[in-house]
Every structure is written in C-alpha cells, then in structure tokens.
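#struct-help
A.M.: can someone run this one for me? Single chain, 540 residues.
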Amino acid sequence: MTSPRIERALLSVSDKTGLVEFAQGLAAAGVELLSTGGTRRHLEEAGLSVRDVAEYTGFPEMMEGRLKTLHPKVHGGILARHDRPDDLVAMAEHDIAAIPLVVVNLYPFEATVARADVTLDEAVENIDIGGPTMVRAAAKNYRFTTIASDPSQYPAILEQVAESGATTLELRRELMEAAFAHTARYDRAIADYFARQSAGEAAGPFPASLSVSLDRQAVLRYGENPHQQAALYRLPATAGANLLSAELLGGKELSYNNLLDLNSALAIARDLPDAGAVVIKHTNPCGAAAADSLAAATEAAFAGDPVSAFGSVLGFNQTLDAATAECLAEPGKFVEAIVAPSFSDEALEILRTRPKWRNNVRLLAVCHHDGDPHEADQQEGERLAGAAGAVEFRHIDGGLLAQESDNQPDRDNEWKVVTDVHPSDAQVAELRFAWTIVRHVKSNAIVLAKDRALRGAGAGQMSRVDSVEIAIRKAGEHATGSVLASDAFFPFADSIEVAHAAGVVAVIQPGGSKRDDEVIAACNEKQLPMIFTGRRHFKH
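D.P.: on it. Structure tokens below:
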C-alpha cells in the first residue's frame, strides 16, 4: 500500500541536524512545508518558503510556545484514513488539509536534566506536549502517514518521495516502530527524572523502578566465544568520550572482546598524566607509562611486559602522531586495536600502509577535532574525560546491579604518611602514578611502578600476597627501586616482607585493616615509607 501522494509536510524539530537539506529535497519534489516557531525561522533563513502552522489553522501560537500544534486542522490532517469516505468528507467540511508527512523530534529533556545545574522549572519546560502527540498520531496512522522522528531517517524518506512522490508501507511501518520507541523512551526519561527527585538523597541516582531504553548500534560477529551471539547497544544521552560515539578510522569491525578491552584502555588513558600510553590484555593493563612524548611513553609501556603485549589493545591520551606510529609499526609488535583522541594524518598513513597493519588493526578516534589542531590538542585531556557521576550496570541471574562509576579523582591532599620514614618527592610522584593504574586492575590488585611506568601487575588473585609475588615476577629486575600500590588494605604483613625483599622502596594502599598496626610496624622495621589513601578501589 502506498500513502497518499506527499504534497505537504509538517516540520517541527528540536534537533535540526540535516533538516535544511531534507526540506530542500522535499521542496524540490513539490512538497509544501508547514512549520512552527524556531523550525520555521531556521528554514526561512536557509531561503525556503514555509507556511506558518498558525496561518494554516487560523489559531495563533500562544503561552510562549506551549500551545501551537494541538489543533483539529493539524491532527485531522495527520490522522485521516484515506480509504474511509467519512474521514474524507469530514476533512472537506472543516477545511482540513492532508498532512501525509510529519517530521518531529522532541525537546531535549534528557540532555537538559543531565546538567548538574538544571532547575525543576527548566526540566518542566522541556517536557514536550505537542511533539509526542503528533509523533504518536502519525505513527498510529502509519498506513497513510509517514513519521520521521530522527534525522537518520531523512535519506530513506527523501529517496522514495523523490522517486514516486510517496513512501512504501514497509518503510512507514519501520518508521512507526521507531516512533513509538522514541516516545516511550521520552516518557520513561521524564518519569525517571521525577522519581529521582522524590527518592531523596538516600537513594542517590537510583529510582524506585528503572527502565533502560537502548538502541542497537551493531550486531557483532560473536560474543566472548564463537558460539555466543552478541550485539552492541547505545545508552541514550551518554556524555563524555566513549566507544559508542567513536569513529573507526581503519581495520576490521570490532568484536565483543575488542570493545571490552578498548573500554578498559580508554578508562586508563583518561587518568594518565602528560603523554600517556597503556597496553591492555584481557581488560587488565600489562603495560602503561607517562613520558614527555607519546612515542617515549609507548616504548616504556611495551617494555613493561613485552610478552603479554603481543596481541594487545592500546590506549593513548593524546593525538597519535607519526613518531608513535613508527614505534608501533616496528617488527615484533602485534596489536589488535587502538583507541586515541585522534590520529594525525601522518600516523594514519603509516598505520594504513604497513602490510601487517593494513585492514587489520582497528583504529578508533574518540574525539573529533574542529578548527585549529594545535588548539584541539591543548583541550584533548578535557575532551577525553568520561561522564562524571555515571551509573554502570552489571547483569546477574535474575536482575541487574547498578552503581556509580569509580571514575572520580582521588583527593590526594587527604592522603596520610603512616610510617616513621616519609617518601621523597620523587617517590610520591611514582606512588601517585602507581595509584592511578592500580584502580583499573582486577582485584586483588597489586602494581609495581618505576620511572612512571608499570613494571609488574598482579591481578585477580584469591590471595593478596599471591598478587604481590606475581607483580614482582613480572617486574623482574625492575622490581628493585620500584614502588608498590595495592587497591585494598593488606590483611597481613606478609606482603610487606615479600615486597621489601624484592627491592620495593615505597608503598601506597587504602588502609583500614584490623592489622594496620602490624603492617605499619613491618614497614617501619624495613624503613619502608607507606601512604594510606583512605579510599579502596576494588574492581571485581
């Protein structure tokens, strides 16, 4: 079934992405444009002829835009069933024109309430009334009316209108399903916002009931293993640099495991000081470093555990430049994927043309620079930041766990030296680097660092002393003179004995054990300075 010929379209949108080009295409196909307020002005400024909805209905826009499209001449034109003679008679009697194309997206409620400084009045004024009503009306009448609720739908609609003057039933049904999902998600966001307002501080960001609306972004080749199917879904209104909004600049499609490893790489890269590089294997860092240049940081990161680095995923906190690309392309290095704020043209040329890299290694840019690249580089650290206060979810049988992300900076002005011997300024700098890394290692987590580089990591062991011994073995000769970071307290002094024997020169840990006094005494006996941070960083 084809719809009536699209001779008229009503356009009223908040997100104006691609709107002018879409409207120009419709006008070229002979479609009359009806519009309201800001959308009408936007189109007229682009040189398009637009009929004001108020002029069509004979009823003015009022109440600061609260009332403009809620009118029988609008909704009659949208809801009319063109195979029903009585509907057509009613349209003729009341001078209702057919509106077979509705282009509406809604006030940015989710983006508005995501702001830390949003007021209740601002939230209320961003609750769209006329928009959802038009979307639902058009979707209900999909047999005759085409509804565009997202700019990504414009090309498919325009192609069919330009070719035949109408759209197919198949496309209209697809758009109908998307429209109802759009309004359902919108209403859910409003309900969740007010539920959070009523829940009070004790509940924090967790409403009494939770409904998460996700858009599928990709079907993956398989999951953790080839026999498992998998897909990638996008959360709405996600802020900060992330993999969902990243641009794939080269290489094969991303796998389920790639995405998990890249997410870990991005999280650590955000926290690294200066020029930083991290090498990820199975979501844990096997190498990480900060240096004066990205190439130097890369060399140091690979040196941390060159055996484990084979087939790894890399993360960077600055634009990946030519010198770093040359370092990566050296013989013997094999990498699965890279995430960075951006890649220089020279670096892309190197990575795309080397035989072992071409069409294989995935290159993801999570920040898209506009304007002066030098100015963009200065802002890169800020742009790489994640969303503060984000909530993360994990599945368990029968439900979900939700918690605030552990991505807030530590207050190092609250750290306490608890030993008789104080660390030197140089040791404090090394301890700060080690503490930055250890929060991203699976618990029980131990990190040895030296010269602002990860030298050894013990991850995911049932015993903390086992993690210490693994980190020392990984560090090898670099254990001598290194500092040690532990993501949680030491339950016994045995780890201190093992670390000191390996040549560790300073320790940082949260503290809080019943045997803290024994651990401090062991450090004092060995003249080993130790800092308590007061904050644990378990990563299960």
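A.M.: thanks! Residues 169-199 form the longest helix (31 residues).
D.P.: also worth noting: The chain has three domains: 8-195, 240-386, 414-532.
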